[in-house]
Amino acid sequence: MNKAEFLNEIYREHSGELPSKAIVENTFTALCKVIQAELLGGGEVPLPGVGKLKVKATAARKGRNPKTGESINIPAGQRVTFSPSKELKEAMKS
Fold this sequence. Notes:
The chain is α+β, with helices and mostly antiparallel strands.
């Protein structure tokens, strides 16, 4: 599913309540900005019924360039992780 399909599904699901697709797109853009700001600040973002996005620190480590086989140093950093909710885990089992 791409962004346009995603926004169309939201609009279709709430077409009687929402006046235009532009409002759906503007709300989605604002939501993404809020999520990004929270994650950049080191916080967590709960997605009810789906899971949680969190920032996790990664340690510096050695890696290998797959093309040349040369050893490289990968610096410490941060990455975003996703933890699925119990509801999603159970739904995926069926």
